[in-house]
Specification:
150 residues; 5 helices; disordered C terminus
Length: 150
């Protein structure tokens, strides 16, 4: 479940850097010490950065990593917004999944892509440095967040 994958220590508030610096800051919260290096070194095509932007101020950079024990999510929130490919991004969800589980990667990517735009305003309104006030990503805790499981 997405709520189980998003650990409290993996929520970063106050992103204000450019997008590449924001990615570095999110990766600093990973259990993988070299996540930023792996992300930068992935073979990308010129349009890949745009592929991570899903609209409505939400971007989901993602990659698959060989022998990663389990999926990892890191959420970043920027009230001011971060410039990214001529868009202003307020919510960044970094997704890393085991390379050996492409179906899980696609399933998580699809689910967070459909979930985040719908709760973007609520995340921005309720996100505080000490945690989320009145918002839970747990199933059935929010009528706009249908139960999500993997």
């Amino acid at each position: 479940m997405i709520a189980e994958l998003l650990e409290p220590g993996n929520v970063v508030f106050g992103l204000s850097e450019d997008f590449s610096q924001a990615i570095e800051r999110l990766c600093d919260h990973s259990r993988l010490p070299d996540l930023a290096v792996r992300f930068r070194s992935q073979k990308v095509d010129p349009s890949n950065e745009g592929y991570s932007y899903i609209g409505q101020g939400v971007a989901i950079p993602h990659l698959r990593i060989d022998q990663l024990p389990s999926a990892e999510l890191i959420l970043g929130i920027s009230a001011k917004g971060i410039s990214f490919n001529q868009h202003k991004v307020h919510i960044v969800l970094f997704l890393a999944t085991p390379a050996e589980q492409p179906a899980q990667h696609l399933q998580l990517l699809q689910r967070v892509s459909s979930l985040l735009p719908g709760i973007r305003q609520e995340l921005l309104r309720n996100a505080m440095p000490i945690g989320f006030s009145g918002l839970s990503l747990a199933p059935n805790s929010n009528p706009r967040c249908p139960p999500i499981s993997i």
